[in-house]
Specification:
alpha+beta, 3-stranded antiparallel β-sheet
């Protein structure tokens, strides 16, 4: 019985924290287009830049790009794109943790049934 009362007394602060987190998340989402990272393959034969929305912003071919070998060029494009997406995802994760501050993301996931 006392556990139920204790749990009820924590609902208000939890709701306030959830509302604060939602506000921070909305603000963070506005920054996603401005977070960018690049990935390269074949040295600098292919370079791809992606943003925090996982959109490809640019594709560049260096002088060593194997333009006469479509299969090799395709492989390098895929590798560079995947590298750029991994890099930007890592940046987004880091920046999200910074912007959330003291919010315990694992606790929130558990509370939402995602943990």
């Amino acid at each position: 019985m006392f556990d139920s009362i204790k749990a009820l007394s924590q609902i208000g602060p939890m709701m306030a924290k959830a509302k604060e987190m939602q506000s921070r998340m909305v603000e963070f989402q506005k920054t996603l287009p401005f977070i960018e990272a690049s990935g390269a393959a074949g040295g600098e034969a292919v370079r791809v830049t992606a943003n925090g929305r996982l959109e490809i912003m640019s594709f560049e071919f260096g002088p060593d790009a194997p333009t006469s070998d479509p299969a090799k060029l395709s492989d390098l494009c895929r590798e560079a794109t995947n590298a750029a997406l991994r890099a930007v995802q890592a940046q987004v994760q880091t920046k999200m943790q910074e912007s959330m501050g003291d919010v315990d993301m694992e606790a929130m996931r558990s509370m939402l049934g995602q943990g």
